[in-house]
Amino acid sequence: MFHGLFRPLRGMISSDDAPLADIKIDVTESDASYQVKAELPGVDKKDIDVKIDGNVVSINAKVERNKETKEGERVIRRERYAGAVCRSFSLACDLDESNSVTRY
């Protein structure tokens, strides 16, 4: 009966528990290699870690946001994610980590 009654109020409440951000990826394949492009907006390259284990690629990133507020201010809405994000996916065959290249 009251399903959704408070839904309009959700956006007005400050939340530090934003849902985990997704890392969007595109994977292409040629005869000799795979190419992975990942979207990590607002992440410094020093905070990105890519690991390869057999045919599994893992992308880890740390997202930091300034949560300070000035005296007399209060947060009405916080949508920008802060924390750690991870995306792992499998490819059809094992990768040679020594021949892998990461570019930012």
Automatic annotation (TrEMBL):
Domain of life, source organism: Bacteria
Annotated ranges, domain SHSP: 16-104
PROSITE patterns given in the database record: SHSP
Cited SUPFAM superfamilies: HSP20-like chaperones
A Pfam family this chain is assigned to: HSP20
Keyword tRNA-binding on entry: no
Transmembrane segments: none
The keyword Chloroplast is assigned to this record: no
UniProt xrefs under InterPro entries: A-crystallin/Hsp20_dom, HSP20-like_chaperone, Small_HSP
Record keywords, A-Z: Stress response
Coiled-coil features, chain-numbered ranges: none
Similarity comment text for this entry: Belongs to the small heat shock protein (HSP20) family.
Protein name: Molecular chaperone (Small heat shock protein)
